[in-house]
Amino acid sequence: GAVVSQHPSWVICKSGTSVKIECRSLDFQATTMFWYRQFPKQSLMLMATSNEGSKATYEQGVEKDKFLINHASLTLSTLTVTSAHPEDSSFYICSARDPPTGVGNTEAFFGQGTRLTVV
Amino acid sequence: AQKITQTQPGMFVQEKEAVTLDCTYDTSDPSYGLFWYKQPSSGEMIFLIYQGSYDQQNATEGRYSLNFQKARKSANLVISASQLGDSAMYFCAMREATGFQKLVFGTGTRLLVSP
User: Fold this and answer.
1) pLDDT tens sequence across B16-51
2) Which residues of A fall below an 8 Å CB-CB distance to B?
């Protein structure tokens, strides 16, 4: 199946700094990627939909200026957590579909996830 | 709005036994897709099985089968012959047919398989 690579797998940063997480589709083009956040023992909550060449669509309650998403190419989307604080510590995971449209039997492929710890 | 409900926070099963993980959903769209994912402690999301809203037959993938009851809006996952490696979190998810076709996840069920 298709491969989505996410980097880094874990990161520790100081409070107030920014952290960039990359999500790459390795063997297919992803016009749309999704970014999720998962707190310990909780479900995946969609943060935003990343669209190649246009602005991301954020879910209600997600701060656009806090979580910057850039989808500059068909194979790369980045999530930057700006001015990170301890409450931003979480597991962030991206996904993409191949092919990108249709409700049919095309599962979303997920990256490996990034465990962010802000100290 | 779409909603996925998993009412079992945790389930225990003995090795080699079958187990059913419950999932109910709510949507006003006639076209949708239902998915089950497995998430081991490493965090990766592993696709298990898919059921389309118009599929007449229940989906099966190896030891996994999906008990799809459209009128009841349920899509339970059945794992047959459980293995120790099946211990993980299991998430039911639904994909909407419109817009970005994003996945909406349930709260998950933690399955523990004992020897």
Assistant:
1) 999 999 999 999 888 899 999 999 999 999 999 999
2) 1, 32, 34, 38, 42-46, 49, 51, 57, 91, 93, 95, 97, 101-105, 107-110, 112-113, 115
